[in-house]
Amino acid sequence: MTVALADLVAQYVSIKDEIDTSIRAALESGRFILGPAVADLEQSLSDYCGSQYAVGVNSGTDALLLALAGCGIGPGDEVITTPFTFVATIEAISHVGATPVFADIDPATFNLDPEAAAGKIGPRTRAIMPVDLFGQMADREAFADLAAEHDLILIYDSAQAIGSAFNNKPIGAFGDAATLSFFPTKNLGAYGDGGMVLTNDAACAERVRRLRFHGSGGDYAYDAVGYCSRLDALQAAILSVKLRHLSEWTSARRRHAERYRQCLAETGLTLPVEAPGVFHTYHQFTVRSPERDRLRAFLADAGIQSGIYYPSPLHVQPAYKDLGYAEGDFPEAERACREVLSLPVHPDLTEAQLEHVCATVRRFR
Ligand SMILES: Cc1ncc(COP(=O)(O)O)c(C=O)c1O
């Protein structure tokens, strides 16, 4: 038996008729960039995520970039974030001309530690950008307090956390903005690239809307140096179909996570912790083991794929050496990189596959 980390073909087959119909309608509409399909998706996603505005862009990376630019972050500003994330988080900060400033993570949740972030606030700090890693929202209360106390902008990288909630409030209800990614393996994945900026600030939404379209409203008048970053209608048509299934897929992920908790309880692995008040959507089910690499090889021998997110923290990457960090600066992020292993938790796992993973991990010595 083989068990993949994601099975996008199985998912497509399960909703093929709906997807094919929606794609055909988009093709027959003749509107391929933005247009009604994108507007419909923006409306459904702002409803789903609890934000007043949603602006579709062409990737999760660009959603971060445009959210930062839309909130007025630029050269000379510092943005505090985590070194234990996908590189896009800090790429976006660098591309608007600001400087990423790292703070260590909370080892229990893998998310940016609010206290560590507080310790990094200085005279040039303009924003904090926590990441909702693996489907678990960062501490909304602590970061809201910190931002209010120091008058900082708060942008959440929620690329991995669509459907999550904090004290029963969804991701779009917090901060100045939150961003989504529709990378194909995300919980809501396109068949290509896509992203979205969620905000409750009308001025920010309008700026992002113009920035994604060369800094204009389509009238050849440009009030800002913009980008070409529009969501296309085909992806929107696909995502609108998939959004109808998202809650059911999230429930499946949560059921699989629960089964892992039962069957892996005695294995000595550190299982993911759900922080109080957080509704975790298990983009990844990430365990920790000091024997991570041996466990990974053992799983691979049994036909089971696993993932390492992330093998190396961002503060030691050559591309960011000018930031001046060194190995040892963020011990929890570094330890996480040595110990984490993500097990298959996607919604299309069969019971037999899930039990095969459980039995294999339990056999590991
Ligand atoms: C935490 C995080 N931020 C940003 C991104 C960037 O999204 P995209 O690949 O859609 O550009 C991703 C995913 O790829 C991500 O996981």
Description:
- The chain is α/β, with parallel strands linked by helices.
- Helix content is 39%, strand content 13%.
- It has a 7-stranded mixed beta sheet with strand order 1-9-8-5-4-2-3, with helices on both faces.
- Helix 4 (60-70) packs across helix 8.
- The protein binds pyridoxal-5'-phosphate.
Topology summary:
Blueprint: H1 8-14, H2 16-29, H3 35-49, E1 53-57, H4 60-70, E2 78-81, H5 88-95, E3 99-102, H6 114-118, E4 125-129, H7 140-150, E5 153-157, E6 165-166, E7 169-170, E8 177-181, E9 195-199, H8 202-211, H9 233-263, E10 278-279, E11 285-288, H10 292-301, H11 331-339, E12 340-343, H12 351-363
Helix pairs in contact: 2-9, 3-9, 4-5, 4-8, 9-12
The structure holds pyridoxal-5'-phosphate.
Give structural attributes:
binds pyridoxal-5'-phosphate; three-stranded antiparallel β-sheet; seven-stranded mixed β-sheet; single chain; 365 residues; Aspartate Aminotransferase, domain 2; Aspartate Aminotransferase, domain 1; 12 strands; 12 helices; alpha/beta; 2 domains
The domain tally reads 2
At CATH level 2, the architecture of the largest domain is 3-Layer(aba) Sandwich
What is the CATH domain class of the largest domain? Alpha Beta
> Radius of gyration, rounded?
20 Å
Largest sheet: 7 strands, mixed
Order of helices and strands: HHHEHEHEHEHEEEEEHHEEHHEH
The strand line-up of the biggest sheet is: 1-9-8-5-4-2-3
**Number of E-type strands:** 12
Q: How much of the sequence is in beta strands? A: 5-15%
- The number of distinct helices, counting runs of at least 4 residues, comes to 12
Poorly predicted ranges (pLDDT <50, ≥5 residues)?
none
Roughly how many Å apart are the termini? 21 Å
- Helical fraction equals 25-40%
Small-molecule components bound = pyridoxal-5'-phosphate
The dominant shape is globular
Structure classification: alpha/beta
Considering the protein shown, what is the CATH homologous superfamily of the largest domain?
A: Type I PLP-dependent aspartate aminotransferase-like (Major domain)
Q: Calculate the mean pLDDT score and round it.
A: 97
CATH topology of the largest domain: Aspartate Aminotransferase, domain 2
